[in-house]
Amino acid sequence: LTKHTYYFSRQKNTNIRLTLPVVCFVWQIAMIILFGVFIRYDEESDTHWVETKAHDNITSDIENDFYFRYPSFQDVHVMIFVGFGFLMTFLKRYSFGAVGFNFLIASFGLQWALLMQGWFHSLDPQTGKIFIGVESLINADFCVAGCLIAYGAVLGKVSPVQLLVMTLFGVTLFAVEEYIILNLLHARDAGGSMVIHTFGGYYGLTISWVLYRPNLHQSKRMQGSVYHSDIFAMIGTLFLWMFWPSFNSAITDHGDGQHRAVINTYLCLASTVLTTVAISSLSQKTGKLDMVHIQNSTLAGGVALGTAAEFMISPYGALIVGFFCGIISTMGYIFISPFLEKTLKIQDTCGIHNLHAMPGVIGGIVGAITAAAASESVYGKQGLINTFDFTGDFKDRTVLTQGGYQAAGMCVSIVFGVVGGAIVGSILKLPIWGDPADENCFDDEVYWEVSEPATHHLLFIIQPLGGAIVFDLVSRDELQTTFEIFI
């Protein structure tokens, strides 16, 4: 027992000069080898596209899927690298880690995702190859999004090596649960309320629970935000908010399904903003707004409408979902986050429970109810078949059965997130990854060269004030102390 306790509590060594380069080099070389063996261009990105056009009587290159999907891919790509990255820059001394590590794990994750999703979804049984096109890139970004959501729960408390390990396992788990939900259960989840947000949320929360730090209060001084860091985080919020209609519609069917998903998400997000502002103001005796709520809860509607985005939920239905999501998510930041930390020992840095996990579950429930309530009079006979893909082995499925499988899909995502997070968290708890000590969390200087030292160099500003001279002791982040010397 003594040896075990020592093993997990010995002095932290954050020098990753060897481990980080080794992991990056070895894993990237592995990606090159695996891509060489398995990955090939699909028919629409291969030079044989000319022959395919002639064979299939395609008269114009505009029929190439690239021209349908690339605008959405571009929007989703911006969300992954700019939106998620900048949303996490709210901490006063962890902006490099937020944007930089987001960049690192997304770049690795999308490569591994192309392989994992390819093996499960598009492996050609005859050639043993994975054929990729622009839609494969969108799906890889979706896969990475689940890992970036999980990163939000452990932001500032883990090393980049731990993040890479978390992404390796997270992408693997994602590919398996996605295959079960979308292929075996045949649930619909175009915007990923279940597959992305619910899984990513509970995956990150469970890892944070396993990695609980009882002495994290030693870094309390670094956990808050400052004016400029909140502004940077709002950049991420606005990019995510603007492009979320593309996220929810990126892989839906061409035509009415994609069109409807954009409209529904657009309206839901707008409704969420108003109720978020309302609850944020009501929560303060002075009626002032909290930037944490505005940065995060305003996005909850996009998460919650992911599953039902392409369904006939109706414009007013989208507004209703957004209305309640803004309320629930903001109340989560006010009441549930403190409860999670104090009672369940879950230290959720970014509040992903309120932005992703809880709205993801709401999205799964909304999707199940909307699917079960679908009717031929609303959708039309062919519309029902197209929307829920009632073809092949699923041609005899009823809407009530579909609603049940939608609910089952949500349960699968939660189970994979919790069980997978517990296993991966136990691996990340090993003291070999170079994670920071409790007193050094949320500080860029642990892993980055920072031009300005984090130590509080005091600047003395002398101002005449009546018969006194006021000395303001100012740290690099904020005003620390003010005292007066009377003459």
Automatic annotation (TrEMBL):
It is a multi-pass membrane protein. Residues 64-446 form the Ammonium transporter AmtB-like domain. One of its GO terms (cellular component) is plasma membrane. GO terms for molecular function: ammonium channel activity. The keyword Transferase does not apply. Keywords: Ammonia transport, Cell membrane, Glycoprotein, Membrane, Transmembrane, Transmembrane helix, Transport. One of its GO terms (biological process) is ammonium homeostasis. It is found in: Cell membrane. Its main location: membrane. The chain crosses the membrane at residues 20-41, 73-91, 98-118, 130-151, 163-182, 194-212, 224-243, 263-282, 294-313, 319-340, 352-374, 407-428. Belongs to the ammonium transporter (TC 2.A.49) family. Rh subfamily. Homotrimer. Functions as an ammonia transporter. May play a role in the elimination of ammonia in the gill. This is Rh family C glycoprotein. The gene is RHCG.
